[in-house]
Each structure stands twice: as structure tokens, then as C-alpha cells.
Amino acid sequence: xxxxxxxxxxxxxxxxxxxxxxxxxxxxxxxxxxxxxxxxxxxxxxxxxxxxxxxxxxxxxxxxxxxxxxxxxxxxxxxxxxxxxxxxxxxxxxxxxxxxxxxxxxxxxxxxxxxxxxxxxxxxxxxxxxxxxxxxxxxxxxxxxxxxxxxxxxxxxxxxxxxxxxxxxxxxxxxxxxxxxxxxxxxxxxxxxxxxxxxxxxxxxxxxxxxxxxxxxxxxxxxxxxxxxxxxxxxxxxxxxxxxxxxxxxxxxxxxxxxxxxxxxxxxxxxxxxxxxxxxxxxxxxxxxxxxxxxxxxxxxxxxxxxxxxxxxxxxxxxxxxxxxxxxxxxxxxxxxxxxxxxxxxxxxxxxxxxxxxxxxxxxxxxxxxxxxxxxxxxxxxxxxxxxxxxxxxxxxxxxxxxxxxxxxxxxxxxxxxxxxxx
Length: 423
Known about the structure:
Blueprint: H1 4-25, H2 33-36, H3 39-56, H4 67-83, H5 90-118, H6 121-151, H7 166-189, H8 198-207, H9 210-219, H10 226-256, H11 266-299, H12 302-319, H13 329-343, H14 346-352, H15 360-367, H16 369-389, H17 395-411
């Protein structure tokens, strides 16, 4: 049931490692990057709660509850992944990011609820850890693809016309195929439990209009259980840090370590490829650590496990400021990988233990607000802060992200987790 996340992460990893590179190559300035990235959080804000709400109210005897959304998202995301690297102007790349992110969100949100649907509480920590494993594996491969195409297969890494290099284009093509195949494998090879009362579900759907569903989805933020409210603060600062990293790592590494801001230079593209390797490493660490997290949680608790992981990520991000040797970035990525493994699993394990089964998708969608709102905030203020206080030096965005992740770690102490086993 988690294998589809391998494909979904191909989409996200290619986006996270390469979109800033594409934007800069097509003429974007450093302080414009956060605003151009707004597509990612805004589409998540709009799409995920609505998809979660309606996936709770979907049932087909053959295709189940969540799987129709997996399939639709996979088709749309594959198309977007093929179109994105063929953008010839900045505005085209921005539109493609909107399409790609919206499509990925259609698939991803129901996958979170899927594990909650299928597993009892005592198995959910392991279930979400398995998702983290497949996310890690997919991201390792996808993040490294431009480097692999350049160094293993001799594909051009610098576009002659100043556009997007062929190594990036072929990475997105392969990613689109992997996305579709992995998600559809889950669609065709899993079965879902039917709702307890199908007639009640049909009656609710008959009474509920699309507009009513939209309103109900966004009202959910005012109906969150106490533990969900506490976790939302942790999520806010965690994802603020991640968004800062995804936007600014390419710019920070190429300027701070490789000493260039010329997007057409070999040094810039070498640095950008190395960022892909760094992202592959932190995802690889996450894939391995995913299996260790349930063990640590068993001997401590889920919230303490999450605290320790986030603190590791904070140190990893801040350490980049002190690095001059590209190879040492891999040490920083060790901490980031530990944090990423926990961010992908522990909050959802804690959350799913206190949610009603018939509203799992709905609340998972509402919880997504606290992934996308911090990204919108980051997009709104990071460019301003860098330009006015740090002379547009990108590496300081990573330091700010590290401080935010440290705050998230401290906030884990306020979370009240229900770790008792329930059916």
C-alpha cells in the first residue's frame, strides 16, 4: 500500500531539487524565487483538504475509496513532469509548477489517509515509517538523476541556448514514467475495506453539494482535536525550514561554496548537480532511519523521537554556513535526513491515533494547512529578509530555516500523544 509513494516522491524530489535551478536559468533573481515557488503551497492549501473530504465520501466496489484519486493524480502529474522541462520562458515554468504540484497533491493526500484506514493504531508508526522508506528511495534516485545522466551517460549538463540542460529534461521524463508506474502498481494491487455503512455514505453524498463540501473542508481548521492543534505548531516551523531549504539550497551552494552566480557556467551547473546528490543523500538517510524511528519511539515516545530528529535537522541546516568543501555538505545532509524521516512519519502516527476513522482523509487534508501555510509565509518574507538584512546572501536562508526547525523541536514537548493501542 505504500509503494505508490516511491513514484510520488519522484515528482516531489525532481521539483525540490531542480525548480529553483530552472527558474534561475530562465532569468529569475534570488529575491523572486520564494514568490515563484508559491504555486507549491497554494495548490496544497486548495487541493488537499478538498481531496481528503471527498475521498472520505467515495466508495466504488472495485476501485475503493482512495485509489481513484491515486490514479487521477498520477495521470495528471505524469503529463506535468513531461511538460515542465520544456518551458522556454519563466512564466511557462511557473504555470507548469502549478499544474505539477496540484496533480501530485491529488495523489498524495489520500495516501496518508490510506495507511490510517488500513492499519490499527499499534501498526501505524511502522506503516508511516514504511511510507518514509519508499519516499526516501524514490527521492534518492530522482534527486541524483541529473548528476547520473551527466556523469554516467554523457548527457549535456549545460544548454547551448541558455535554456534547460538535457540532463534535467531526461530526468523529468524518467521521473514521469516512474511516477505513473509506481502509483498504478498500488492502485491495481491493493484492496480497501468498505465503509461500515454504505447506505449512510450514499445518503450523505446525496445531501452534500460541491460548495457545501468546499466550505466544510476549510471550516475544519476550527474543529481540530487538541493534539492536532499542538502538532500544527510543530508542523508550521518544520515546514517553514524545509521550504527555505528547497528554495535556497541551489543558490546557497553555488554562490557560497562554488563561488558563482552565472547560471550558464559549468561551475554553477556542477554545483546544482551536487545539490541533487545532497538531496539524494538526505533522502537515503531518511529511508534507512525510517526503520529505526519505531524502535526509538518504543523506548522513549513518539514526541521525544520527533524532537531529537528535528534537532538533528536544525544542526544540519545551520552547519551549511560554515562549510567550504562541497563534500562536507554530506555531513549536513545526515542531520536533515534524520529530520525528514521523522517529519514524514511521526506527526501522522500521532495524529491518526486520535482521529475518527470516517473522517481520516478529511482531517489529514486539514492538517495539510500547517504544511502549506508556513510555506506561504516563507515565500512572503524570506526574499524580503534576505534582500534587506543579509544583502541577498542565500546561505542565510538556510540558517533561518535551521532556527525554525530548532523551535519546532522544542514545541514537541507540548504535544499530548495517545500511544495506547486501539482497534
